[in-house]
Structures are given as C-alpha cells and as structure tokens.
Amino acid sequence: MFLGLSKGAALTILVILAGVAVFLTAEGIPGITASPDEVKSGKTFLAFVLPLVFGTLWSATLALLIAVPLAVAVALFVTYYVPRRLGHTLGYVIDLLAAVPSVVFGLWGMRVLAGQLVGPYAWLEANLGFLPFFGGPASATGRTILTAAIVLAVMILPIVTAIAREVFRQTPVLLEEAALALGATRWEMIRTVVLPHGRSGMIGGAMLGLGRALGETMAVAMVLSASGVISLNLISSSNPSTIPANIALQFNEASGLTVNALIASGLVLFVITFAVNLAARAIVNRRKEFSGARA
To answer: What is the pLDDT of residue 295?
Structure first.
C-alpha cells in the first residue's frame, strides 16, 4: 500500500509538471509569434524577454555569490565549532528562515534595508565609481539590484546552509580523526578533508538555492525599482527587472496578446528553473555513500 501511494504521488507530480509545461507552451506561443504592435511593450518577444532573462540571472547570481560563502561558514561553525546541543539549536533557528513568507522579506528590504544602504552606495560611487559595477549615479532610495540580491541571499541562506550542514556531517569520522592524529589543526582538517568531501554537495545546494532565487517574485517586486534595462551597475536607480517580478507587476493590467507574451516569459523562466534544478539533482545524485559518517 505504501509503495502504491508513493508511486501515485510521484506520478501525480509528474502529471502536474507536464500540465504546467503544456499550458505555458500553448498559451505562450501566440505571445512569442506576436508582432511588436500587438503587445504593450511594442517590442518583439526576444527584445522583450532578453532584459528580463538578464535581470533574473544577474540578481540570482549576485545572491548566490553572497549567500554561498556565508552558508558554508555557518554550516562549518554549527557542525564543528560549537557544542552539539547549541549547534542543533542554531540549525533549527537557521531553518526557520525558510518558513518566513517572501512578502515579509520584501517589506524588510523595502522599508529597512534599502534606506540603510543609501549611504554605502554613495560611498561606493565616490570611491569605486571607476568600476562599471559602481559607476552611479547612486540611487537615492537604495532600491537597486544589489539590494534585491541581498534580500534573495537571505532567503536562500537556509536552503544552502541545511544542505551544506548535512553534507559536512556525512564526512567519515575516521578520516577526520586520521587528519587530527597526524597533527592537523581543526581548520586544516576541515580544509583538507571536510571541504573536498563535501564539494559536490555544496555545489548541489548552491544550485538548489539558485533555483529558489530565480523564481522569487514578491520580494524582488517590492524591493527593486526596475526600468527594464540591461546594466551591470549595482547601485543605480536604472535596474533590470526579473521575469517573476515583471509578471507580477504587469499581469493585472495586461490584455490580449500581452498576456500571452507574459505567459511566454513564464515559459522561459520555467525552462531555466527546470534546467537548474535538474542539474542540481544530477550533481547531488553523483555523491557516493561513505561509511563512518557522523551520527
């Protein structure tokens, strides 16, 4: 009975996924083939979706660059540097971040974080303005792509941390004890044994976090002041938008083939997210089982 229920649940998920793909494809094709004068943007679909794809990938990549080192550091600290009971408590607290609704993160980013970053953005423009990332003019509101990336980084932090923590705990104790017995310090043991052993798991966790960041809607829509451009500037008020945020902001007012164009952009996001999660699952599944893992 349990086997039948499990197979039924798995097949149901596949059917739902296939249904979403069929719906997006059927409704999106008219938007892809629509002429520029038939949609609100006044552009071809490729010209319409490219800035959105860039903004989606750019913000998610920035979030990953911020979150992954912090998540790995937190996972190592919780696993190896604090007492076991305190480590479990800290782990539960970090995991609770995943239960916070995205709209709460959006409100925090819009009302608190953005205002606090106005001064640092002005400093970056004054001192590092020769770099294309900080060329300015700095935003007077702080609602930039970098602010959105920081919010996304906080949102994906529990996912990456949880996976990294579990991977580190699977490091064979015999290897850890052997390194310590040879005179290695705790950090040397982590650097030479734990991190190489958990490399594939960390990559898989990072890619799962990337999938979450790619699909985030409300937090980005509330924080980001988007103008639909392609720009590497992190502190300017001219920011690229993302596919989920653009759909959320434009769908209610859309009509005709504009709706189909938005659905087609959702199809592009579906393909990107599916590819990222598929790659993450492939990397995680490549890990081998080790004996002597931490209990």
So the answer is: 44
CA distance 69 to 156: 12
Residue 290 located in a structural domain:
no
- CATH at 206: 1.10.3720.10
Q: What is the pLDDT of residues 214-231, one digit of tens each?
A: 888 888 888 887 777 888
Give every CB contact of residue 279 below 8 A, 6+ residues apart in sequence.
207
Domain containing 155 equals: 2-285
Rounded to the nearest 5 degrees, what angle is found at the Cα of 170, between the Cα atoms of 164 and 173? 130
Integer Cα distance of 239 and 56 in angstroms:
11
Task: Specify whether the CB–CB gap between 95 and 162 falls below 8 A.
Answer: yes
Give the residues of the chain that fall short of pLDDT 50.
288-295
Beta-ladder partners of 236: 138
CB atoms within 10 A of CB 182: 10
